[in-house]
């Protein structure tokens, strides 16, 4: 063998090399040991060369010459990684030209956040103008996988920024910073249930991956370029969760960290049963919150699915909050969703008659089945069961008696309830009574029935079970994914601002942080 060239002559000495395949780059050079010899040469004692689809380990019986020219440089701060561009390897008949790059990296900040908070999502170290697909997934409490994906093209800097760049395809389009969360759909299209968080003590763990090229499915069969996971929590540290079984009241109390006293919210969910998501998040924003059950709970009296509480049940819950040592007794709001809104209006207007009106609603539902319509896919449309709006004042809530501010939030594509007609009637009655100045209406075009805290996955329909009526139906909620998701984000901000305006006398409540 001829005499070996010295490093000062601008050569690179190799003893062993490995060929392995990487689907993202045509060539990848990694050095196990790297030493800079002079201004034109790098020495690697071991290296990995990626090129082609074959795995080969060989001993080199002679030395290879590596012409770096002006195309090598060391990137400081990259934990010893080397970026080599346009490398020319020559040894006999072997001649390979390609590019070596740092592996793509997903950046999520923060990686732990509350469910109503945004997070920044970026992908770095991609080739410029490269088509890639971002994919998100989580496992629900019912062990159903929910997922979303979006197709991007990296910028000239090799970076995708979800809050800056537009999605060209997938479960959402355009510039949507939280699209990978709110556009999730169940993998099992026959599941028929919406995504509900019942255990607020545990987070949703969301896995986010990036794939080479624009793909639309079978993500588990493709190799991800990079993966990261984020946790989306409902409870912040220091927020207490206390089950309430007192004086016949069934619910869950959430108390912010600190001594208080705090403003409070009585949270009444819809006919589908109690959920703690909103009450827990309100506590993270500084409000003592009681998520009250009145139907579909095993600790309530009577058969499951029936309203068996007396007229004084809701008054007891309100007084429970009012007398709590950590609650400001004169700063309490009541929030309702779906049928819970009817109860809220009844509490504000005519508390002694609540029980009669609850059963009146279910009586209307039972006797108006002939007004039920069906969508093309068989989903039930309920919105007509109380139409036309009754003219008889004895059949309506006397909202003219309300003496507190009212925030009415609804979507104009609600298919469960005639909300636009009902809102018009409420405003008309309040105008006649002289208290319309207390009413704030916010209507969201394209939004459906269940407007929840932001970024929760949207479904236009879901299965509900009504044992007393011997019904199990897939209800059509209405709405479209993008406008409904936008409504959830905006309405949550409006709700918090409304509560702060009317309940906070000495500045905003302290929001808890993860």
Written account of the structure:
By secondary structure, the chain is of the alpha+beta class. It folds into three domains: 7-99, no CATH class; 105-233, Immunoglobulin-like, CATH 2.60.40.2240; 240-503, Alpha/Beta hydrolase fold, catalytic domain (Rossmann fold, 3-Layer(aba) Sandwich), CATH 3.40.50.1820. It has seven helices and 31 strands. Strands 12, 14, 15, 17, 18, 19 and 20 form a seven-stranded mixed sheet that branches. Strands 21-22-24-23-25 form a five-stranded mixed sheet, with helices on both faces. A hairpin with a 2-residue loop joins β3 (34-38) and β4. The longest helix has 23 residues, at 481-503. The termini are far apart.
Provide the fold topology:
Blueprint lengths: L15 E5 L8 E3 L2 E5 L2 E4 L2 E4 L5 E4 L5 E3 L4 E3 L7 E10 L2 E6 L5 E5 L2 E3 L5 E5 L6 E9 L5 E9 L6 E2 L7 E2 L8 H4 L2 E2 L17 E9 L13 E8 L6 E7 L2 E7 L6 E7 L8 H8 L3 E5 L20 H11 L3 E10 L2 H12 L3 H14 L5 E2 L5 E2 L24 E6 L7 H15 L5 E6 L16 E6 L4 E6 L4 H23 L11
Parallel strand pairs: 1-5, 12-20, 23-24, 23-25, 28-29
Antiparallel strand pairs: 1-6, 2-5, 3-4, 7-9, 8-9, 9-10, 11-13, 13-16, 14-15, 14-19, 15-17, 15-18, 19-20, 21-22, 22-24, 26-27, 30-31
């Amino acid at each position: 063998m001829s005499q070996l060239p010295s490093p000062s002559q601008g050569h690179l000495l190799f003893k062993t090399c490995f060929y392995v395949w990487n689907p993202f780059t045509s060539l990848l050079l990694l050095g196990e040991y790297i030493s800079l010899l002079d201004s034109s040469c790098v020495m690697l004692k071991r290296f990995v060369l990626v090129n082609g689809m074959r795995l080969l380990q060989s001993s080199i019986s002679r030395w290879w010459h590596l012409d770096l020219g002006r195309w090598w440089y060391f990137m400081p701060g990259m934990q010893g990684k080397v970026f080599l561009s346009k490398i020319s390897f020559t040894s006999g008949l072997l001649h390979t030209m390609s590019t070596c790059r740092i592996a793509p990296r997903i950046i999520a900040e923060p990686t732990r956040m509350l469910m109503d908070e945004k997070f920044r999502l970026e992908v770095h170290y991609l080739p410029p103008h490269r088509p890639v697909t971002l994919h998100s997934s989580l496992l629900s409490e019912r062990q159903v996988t929910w997922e979303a994906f979006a197709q991007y093209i990296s910028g000239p800097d090799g970076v995708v920024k979800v809050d800056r760049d537009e999605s060209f395809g997938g479960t959402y389009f355009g510039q949507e910073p939280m699209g990978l969360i709110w556009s999730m759909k169940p993998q099992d299209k026959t599941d028929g249930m919406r995504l509900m968080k019942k255990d607020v003590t545990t987070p949703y763990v969301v896995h986010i991956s990036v794939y080479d090229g624009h793909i639309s499915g079978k993500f588990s069969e493709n190799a991800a370029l990079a993966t990261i996971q984020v946790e989306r929590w409902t409870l912040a540290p220091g927020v207490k969760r206390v089950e309430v079984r007192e004086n016949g009241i069934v619910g869950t109390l959430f108390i912010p960290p600190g001594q208080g006293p705090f403003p409070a919210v009585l949270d009444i969910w819809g006919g589908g049963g109690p959920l703690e998501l909103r009450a827990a998040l309100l506590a993270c924003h500084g409000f003592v919150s009681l998520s009250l059950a009145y139907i579909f709970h095993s600790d309530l009296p009577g058969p499951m699915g029936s309203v068996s509480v007396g007229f004084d049940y809701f008054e007891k819950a309100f007084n429970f909050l009012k007398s709590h040592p950590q609650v400001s007794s004169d700063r309490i709001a009541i929030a309702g969703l779906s049928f819970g809104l009817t109860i809220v209006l009844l509490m504000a207007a005519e508390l002694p008659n609540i029980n009669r009106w609850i059963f009146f609603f279910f009586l209307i539902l039972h006797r108006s089945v002939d007004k039920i319509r069906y969508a093309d896919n068989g989903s039930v449309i309920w919105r007509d069961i109380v139409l036309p709006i009754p003219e008889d004042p004895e059949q309506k809530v006397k909202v003219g008696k309300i003496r507190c501010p009212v925030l009415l939030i609804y979507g104009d594509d609600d298919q469960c309830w005639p909300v636009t007609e009902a809102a018009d009637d409420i405003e008309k009655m309040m105008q006649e009574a002289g208290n319309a100045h207390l009413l704030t209406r916010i209507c969201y075009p394209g939004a459906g029935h269940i407007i929840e805290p932001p970024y929760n996955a949207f479904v236009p329909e879901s299965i509900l079970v009504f044992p007393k009526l011997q019904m199990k139906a897939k209800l059509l909620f209405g709405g479209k994914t993008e406008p409904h998701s936008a409504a959830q984000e905006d309405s949550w901000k409006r709700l918090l601002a409304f509560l702060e305006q009317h309940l906070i006398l000495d500045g905003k409540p302290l929001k808890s942080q993860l």
